[in-house]
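Thread: Newbie trying to understand structure tokens

Hi all, I'm a second-year student working on a class project, and my supervisor (Dr. K.) asked me to get a predicted structure for one chain before our next meeting. I've only ever worked with sequences, so writing a 3D structure as a token string is new to me. If someone could post the tokens and maybe explain what I'm looking at, I'd be very grateful. Here's the chain:
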Amino acid sequence: MEQQHGPGTAIAKYSHLPALTKEQATEVMQSVYPGAPNTEMTRAILLCVNFALNPLMGHVFLIPFKGKEGTTWATVLGIKAKRLLASRRRPFSYVNDSPRLMTKEEQEKVFGKVDEKNIVAITILQDPRTHAQARGYGKWPKDATPYGTDKGNSPENMAFIRSESQALDRLCPGEMPVGIEVTDEQFTPPVAEQKEEESGAIEAEVVSSKEADEGHPHTIEQLKSVMQLCNWSPTDVGEFCNKEKGWKIKKYEDLNPEQIAEVIDHINRNPK
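---
Reply by user tm_fold:
Sure, no problem. This is what the structure looks like when written as tokens:
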């Protein structure tokens, strides 16, 4: 993205700033993604501001997807951004030669069977202070070709990215953006190439929040993180839970994991 918006462009002055103000993030996102809907634009801007990220550094993307009901947009994090966010919170290292492909024995131990249809990867992260480890697992279909294979991308790399994304979430529970898709930014198509007819290829490379959280239930800490990201107050959450859903919730602890997931999804779709 830096090459697309380098010297000579109006937003080039922001390209090396470690963090952007809301006004700067708005200028950048509107310049780079003029066709994106306001709701998703606002979500991406708040993500940049609240987590000190810069789209011009490949941290945050807006990507269109073509589906049965037309084109929708998604806010997407580059994997480098997730590494950056985790490193700000605690030191970590990659252990046991990961990310790497899982052996059949490991798959049987973790999943109870060997996945014959997917490439399966594992990432193991460790906090050197406490020696606590966080494991993440990622899959990629064996018969699917990812975007950017001509530039060095591979199905194995996509499985690695998915496993690393989950491991980073588990290393920093409640401290990472929730409900945000993740991709390998070095193989994300330039904005000019993000046309509807190509969006199916793009979509296949994004780590869905559902997959990243598989076996990792949403927590109250994650809910609060999303509330901060999307400018939702406890009163707003209470009105949604009690007036719209009729759950009769008095405090966060009254929410079960399924309800927390539903609230997080609703907030992500309706940032303020």
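A couple of things are worth pointing out once you decode it. The chain has two domains: 58-212, 220-269. The chain is about 40% helix and 15% strand. Feel free to ask follow-ups in this thread.
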